[in-house]
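Notes to self after the Tuesday call (sharing in case useful).
The group wants a holo model before anyone commits to mutagenesis around the pocket. I volunteered. Ligand is uridine-5'-diphosphate. Logging inputs and output together so the record is complete.
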Amino acid sequence: MTTPRWSRVLLKLSGEAFAGNAGSGIDGEVVTRLANDIVEVKRGFDVALAVVVGGGNIWRGLTGAGAGMDRTQADYMGMLATAINALALQETLERLGQETRVQSAIHMQQVAEPYIRRRAMRHLEKGRVVIFAAGTGNPFFTTDTAAALRAVEVEAEVMLKGTHSGTEGVYSADPKVDPDAELLTEVSYLDVLSQGLKVMDSTATSLCMDNELPIVVFDLMGPGNLAGLLAGERIGTLVS
Ligand code: UDP
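Result:
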């Protein structure tokens, strides 16, 4: 097995990625592809891998709040949506022969373990992919913040934030609007915050900055990108 660039990694998968071209729901082919990428790196590298999944393909709290719903209730619905994605990813990974555990920040004992940090660490040591569901368990947060939090908690060396929108990382401007937008290979946390670059929300970015957790933003759908990153290739944008 090859020694990876980072030995413990937190991978953030946006919920929208799970939807594929349909834009909502779960596209089995996309989940299989993502799972195959994970299996490939688990077989090729001596790496501990934890995953945080989003839920935007099913429900976003802000959408509900925008339509007049109570924000807290809408956010709990969003957290439950992430659990559906977590179970879909778990099922696919296990079918491909990769052992997994789902740990949820909201108790749902019939389908997932509760989040227990020390137990998560033990699973990682045993080579299991740990999928964290239900975000932070609190409304008014995002799964990006959950990813930053869990990454720091399980002592991951990096957070790999996969994008799904066909962009390769962080740009100087919106590449879909501005033809002069340039892909940035490296950018500081402070630049992300002060220039409002579209990486993650400020809570998640600040948590990474305060704990010196580097983030790599990369195109999740680019074939071989995850393996390439672990092999040390310069892919996407490094935020540090
Ligand atoms: N959410 C929450 N607290 C958390 C994480 C998520 O309330 O700690 C809710 C929030 O409503 C959010 C939804 O879950 O809109 C889905 O998560 P997110 O939007 O982060 O998913 P992604 O953008 O990654 O698909």
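Two things stood out.
The chain has a mean pLDDT of 96.
Residues 14-16, 54-56, 60-62, 75, 78-79, 81-82, 135-136, 138-139, 141-146 surround uridine-5'-diphosphate (CB under 6 Å).
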